[in-house]
Amino acid sequence: MRRFLVLALLFCWNLTPAVASTDRPNVVLFFIDDLGWRDVGFMGSDFFETPHIDRLAQESMRFSSAYSAAPNCAPSRACLMSGQYTPRHGVYTVGDPARGNHRYRKLVPAKNKTVLDDKFITIADTLSQAGYRCASVGKWHLGKSPLSQGFQVNIAGNPTGSPRGGYFSPYKNPQLADGRKGEYLTDRLTDEACEFIKANANTPFFLYLTHYAVHTPLQAKQADVEYFQSKPAGKLHQHATYAAMIKSMDESIGRVLETLKAQQLEQNTIIIFTSDNGGYGPATSMQPLRGSKGMLYEGGIRVPLVVKWPGVTKANSASEEPVINVDLYPTLLEMTGIPQPEEYALDGTSLVHLLKDPQSQLKTRSLFWHFPAYLQKYKGMQQRFRTTPVSVIRQGDWKLLEFFEDGHRELYNTRLDISETMNLTDSHPEKVKELATALHDWQKQVRAAIPSEPNPQYRSGNESND
């Protein structure tokens, strides 16, 4: 009842019935799990094969400085759906914020929410109110079901962040009936997505195809694994099973695009392809970017992004403008001609101006990340954590990281040093002060949780790297 009243109040200002016109564009959002910045051909992979995505990129506008709003799955998805940064919804990380060896955690991390509260007005809520048929196909990870968040259709979505039964049927997924023995999950989700398109060809729809791939467990079809095992390794990428998973994901994109074409919907459908965070470190590389999933360095948050808006975006166009996934909510509203809900904060900026003119720039602004939690290291890492609690601002080419354990800061110029190898805090103290002030002002504005309580289990002076 509370959610109904909230939605009614937010949309009551629109006295005209929110019924989508027949020429309102469809929207297909491909949201791939753990796909790194370099994990597709058009971004330079020398081993993974993504011909369908590469063709889509050639027909679209590419963003080379696109970011997820968080370095791991659930918070990135909460930001995408709500249009808000992590401090507003409180989904800071996946599950327990106190990960890794307790002896090395100096602070008690901020409390973390694992469910996106129904009070947040998702992009699906807004599109549904305008008459769109909304389907979530694949990973949800923000609570029990997307059906309470504006979607009318849920295929395979639940609280879990990885496929419970793995990638082959039986899936052990209450929201997805088992297929034939050995059926591959990525293929099955593609079947479901294509059927949704066919069933809704005569009404505006929003298809959120949120593959579990290429999240662990790393499992792929044997023939594809053998193919990549026989292929010469690249200097950047070499992992055969991961490559095979990417191949199936790419084939999925191709099948969905072909279904749109067969249904004569290709020219009236907006296509967005992106990832929820950086790639899985043990299986891939984001070089020259530093880091991987779970880090606030570029390799953990910079992601591939392409947008195809028929009749608007120019084929094979590109932008270096820094953008972030909270921008997609206001962008889709402007694309579809739907007003923003009143008295609901959207932290992003519409990218429509950029999409119409790739040489243009957005108004000067800052991008923010807030991660008041710990993430354990990957096996083989020298450092004790992938990240400790940290807050980050990017403004223009400058990026400042401020770590809460000891207050130390790192300043990088992302244009001159994309690999973040040169900490410029000593040589640019005024820039540090400027960005730190802006970051602290933002933290106060959004009431960001700042961890400060000492961890009583912390043991200083322990030199072990366990």
Automatic annotation (TrEMBL):
EC number(s) stated in the UniProt entry for this protein: 3.1.6.1
Sulfatase N-terminal domain sequence ranges: 25-338
InterPro entries named in the record: Alkaline_phosphatase_core_sf, Sulfatase, Sulfatase_N
Domain of life: Bacteria
Hydrolase recorded as keyword: yes
One Gene Ontology molecular-function label: arylsulfatase activity
Pfam families: Sulfatase
Family affiliation: Belongs to the sulfatase family.
Name of the molecule in the record: Arylsulfatase
Organism: Gimesia alba
